[in-house]
Design the sequence.
């Protein structure tokens, strides 16, 4: 008989890569990140309170506006930069 321990959630939430057809859980939203090819991430809504993330959204609004054919927010930065920034929240 095996004993299973529930996964322990870490204090910091990392953005998750998401496939196109996956459902977005309650409390999260999807963003597309990248300069050329865009990758989809599902991030917690709590990121919206972070000043760094708000700056990324301001840059996204200036560059792309809010009417996207992809149906989500596009963050105009490199994937590595986005992950690095969001891991520090």
Sequence:
């Amino acid at each position: 008989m095996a004993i299973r321990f529930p996964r322990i959630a870490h204090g910091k939430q990392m953005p998750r890569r998401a496939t196109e057809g996956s459902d977005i859980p309650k409390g999260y939203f999807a963003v597309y990140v990248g300069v050329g090819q865009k990758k989809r991430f599902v991030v917690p809504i709590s990121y919206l309170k972070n000043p760094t993330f708000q700056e990324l959204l301001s840059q996204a609004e200036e560059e792309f506006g809010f009417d996207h054919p992809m149906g989500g927010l596009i963050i105009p930065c490199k994937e590595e930069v986005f992950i690095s920034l969001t891991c520090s929240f």
Q: What stands out?
A: The longest strand covers residues 28-33.
